[in-house]
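Contributing new complexes? Match this layout with uracil.
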Amino acid sequence: MHHITLDSETDFDGWREAARALALNDVRPSDVSWRVAGGAPELFEPTEQSLEPPHGPSPQATFNVPARFVELAEIAILHRNPERFALLYRLLWRLRSDHDLLEIATDPDVAEVATMAKAVRRDEHKMHAFVRFREVGREHTSHFVAWFEPEHHIVGLAAPFFARRFADMPWSILTPDVCAHWDGHAVTFTPGVAKSEAPTADRLEETWRSYYASIFNPARLKVQAMQKEMPRKYWRNLPEASLIKPLIESAERTASAMIANEATEPHKPQKRLEPANKAEDMARKRADDIEALREEAADCRACHLYQQATQTVFGEGQQTARIMLVGEQPGDKEDLAGRPFVGPAGQMLDRALEEAGIDRRKVYVTNAVKHFKFVPRGKIRLHQKPNTLEIKACRQWYERELAAIKPELVVAMGTTAAQSVLGRITPINRNRGHLIDLADGTRALVTVHPSYLLRLPDADAKAREYRRFVEDLKIAADVLRKSLRAA
Ligand code: URA
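Output block (do not edit by hand):
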């Protein structure tokens, strides 16, 4: 009997190396037992021990298996079935003499491995969809932590998705088996922990719940489909879960009210009027660079964000504006309307501008990233922070807007805007409240993003931070006044 000990539950390389040596030495599947280091010992300790795969001259020098088997085995090995190592070795053994075995979908071994791989992929998909990060710490020391209980050993498989999607935020996903951590550069793994280690609520929870409630469309409710996609076992870790029951209960009532109301016009990107002729068009474009830029940006494919977004949301305002306000990226409302800062953050901005003595019609308002980045969660479009690649891909538009407007002052609201305006990642608190000279002669002012104010949980902090935001904008108002006086 050959007893093979793998390093971990997901040790595919170890399995592959051992399986290859066993098969080359003609060791029959029934003569191999598999275990994982640190796992439960065999019920009957072996009498004739061989803890290593066999060495020495092999009767069969080499053999090939289809590439598809390797792909399938790499995924199926993540299944929690304790027999998976033996099953995969049996399949490998049989493939040596029947190269096309994988084509026989009804073969019990082929069918079982395929079912296992499918279950692993489904679990990975569920993890992508149902991990909810909770913020631990505040502002610049924030870390985002999530708790998840995967059915299979998929944490390593699923982690790169989160590293790509949440590239700019440090996160940890805690699970009972293994924990994955992202520090902005690399994913690392530590042993699993108890659920009690995971945070249960944070200051984003209420925002998330209100968002879910506001985009929930009762007329499109399909309870069975929803429960199929979002099985109950995931609910306990979802902040929005407590809303599902009351929302379903009130859905019928609300849907009838919606039907009774008049239909609203669908949101469509606005069509521009065709120019009378090409010459006229060119003349207009020369006189109006921003309009030309807007048209060009409508087809922007510089990064993948255009694929999901409704449209490019370009900046708007007078070309002669002396102040340019830069936000992060359009939100849900902006994406539909095709205009920056028209949603809740826009309303907060409008109020603060007015208090600071700045007329929004006199400034140019834009975003560092011009497409809405989000993850669909059923009917929800959940805002995602753009990563450095996306910010860089979009910077050309900001630079060209800057060249066309030539403002005296650029106000960067939030970290993404500051990164685009200053050309580097920069902490807001260290830079806010004073004018910064940029290399091209423009001046910059860094402040918080209005959405940050919306997210603050307690009224005192909200009022205090709002005042600070208005104070920052007053510095911009001062620049504007001086500039108008000098003109
Ligand atoms: N947040 C932004 O940064 N920009 C918008 O246009 C809306 C919300």
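Reviewers usually confirm one structural detail per submission. For this one: Residues 9 and 178 are 11 Å apart (CA to CA).
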